[in-house]
Amino acid sequence: MELILDGIRTAIALIFSLDREVLAITLLSLRVSSCATLASLLIGVPAGVFLALSNFPGRRLVVSLVNTGMGLPPVVVGLFVTIFLWRNGPLGFLEILYTPSAMILAQSVIATPLVTGITIAAIQNLPANLKLQVRALGATRLQTVWILVRESRLPLLAAVMAGFGGVISEVGASIMVGGNIKGQTRVLTTATVMETGQGNFDKAIALSLILLLLAFAVNYLLTVIQQRERPR
Amino acid sequence: MSNATPLLHIEGLKIRRGGVQVLDLPRFSLSAEEKVAVIGPNGAGKSSLLLGLACLIGRDCGRVIFQGSEVTPREETAFRRSIAMVFQEPLLFDTTVLDNVAEGMRIRGKGRSESRELAMESLELFRIGHLARRSAHKISGGEAQRVSLARAFAVRPKLILMDEPFSSLDLPTRIVLAEDLGRILHESGTAALIATHDRIEALRVVDRLVVMDGGVVVQEGTPKEVMEQPVNAFVAAFRRTTGTVAG
Question: What's this model's pTM, rounded to 2 decimal places?
C-alpha cells in the first residue's frame, strides 16, 4: 500500500513539476498513438465501408480476417514489423527501425483492423433500405458513401476510441520496433516496463497513472462528443 | 391516357431476385400527371417494379424510357434526380427535419440557404413547418412519414414512386395523410406510382389501378372498372373492404 501511495505522490510531483523527461515521454506517446490512430482511420474507414457495401467472392473470408485482426497480439505485430523493417527486410530501405515512425507503423497495423471491423459493423447496422433511399434521392456513389458514413458517425467515434485505446496501451510492438531509446523512442508503456524491471516502482506507478489519465482524457472527450450527438 | 409521349414507358422489364423471377412486365406506361396505384398480395412484385423502375436493383432485361429517352446505366443518377421515391419506413437522417428535407437539393449541388428555403416550402406544403428545427428522430411515426414525403416533393420531381408509404401508420393518420397527399399530387401535377395494400391510398389518390400477382400484371383499369370485375381473390377481397368506389 505504501508503495502505491508513494507512486501516486511521485506521479503528482512529476506531473505538476513538469518533469522534462516525463513530459517528453508523454508527448511522444501522444504523438505516436495519435498518428497511428489517424493512419488507421484513413485506411480502416474506407476499407470498412467498402467491405460493408460490396459483394465479391471471398468477402466473408476477408471480413473474418479483419475480425481476427481485431485481436492481433502486439508482440506478433512487433515481430513482423521488425522483420519487414530489418536492414535486409522488404522495407529495410526505409531505415526507420528504432524510430517513432516504426512505432507509428506497428501501432497502425494494430489499430487498423479494429477501426475496419467497427466500421463494417456500423455501416451494416444502418437500416437496410437507407442506402436505397440515399440513391433514390439522386446521390452519386461517392455521395452515397459520404452520407452513410455521416449516418454512422456515432459508432465510428467508438472506432476512434477503440483504435486509440488499443495503441496507447500496447507495449510489445513499441518496445520491439522502437527499442525504448531514451529521448527518441521511449513512450509511457515502454518506460513503465523499464522502470518496473529496475525496481523503481514509484516511477513506474507514476508513469502508468499518467498513461491512464491520458487514455481517460482522450476517451472522455470523445465520449462527450458521442453522447451529445446521441438521439434522446 | 393521352396520345402524347408518355412520361414513363417500360418495355420487356424482367427482374430476378435470389434466382427467382419476381417481375415480368412486357409493357407499361405512365402519362404526365397520372396517378397509378399498383395493388396485389405480398410477393406480387410491386416493390420490385418500383425498385427496378428507379434503377435501384439490377434488371435482367428491359428498357426504361423516361420523357422519350432511354435510361442507360450512365444516365441512371440523372434519371433518379428527375424522380423521387418514398419507402414504407421514413428512413430519415440523423439531423434536423429541415436538413432532412433539404438533403435532396444538397445532393443536386444547391447551396445550403437555397436548399433550406425550398425545404421549408415543402414542409409547409405538408403542414409540418413547425417541426423544422426538431431532430428527425424525435418526432412521431405520422410526422416522420410526412417529412419523408416532404423530402420527396422538395426536389420537384416529375414522377414520385411510393412503396407502401402509409402501411406503418394507424388508420386515422393514414386517412388524413392520404387526403393531403391526394391534394398535393393534384395541385403540383406530379405523376405518381404507388404500390399499396391499402384501399384508402389506392382509391382516394389515383386515376388507374394496376393489379399484380406473381410478378405479372393481371388486371388494369380505372378503380371502378377493376372493382366491378375483380380478376382474382385479392381484388375481390380488396373490393369487399372498399364499400363505395371512386372513379
Answer: 0.85
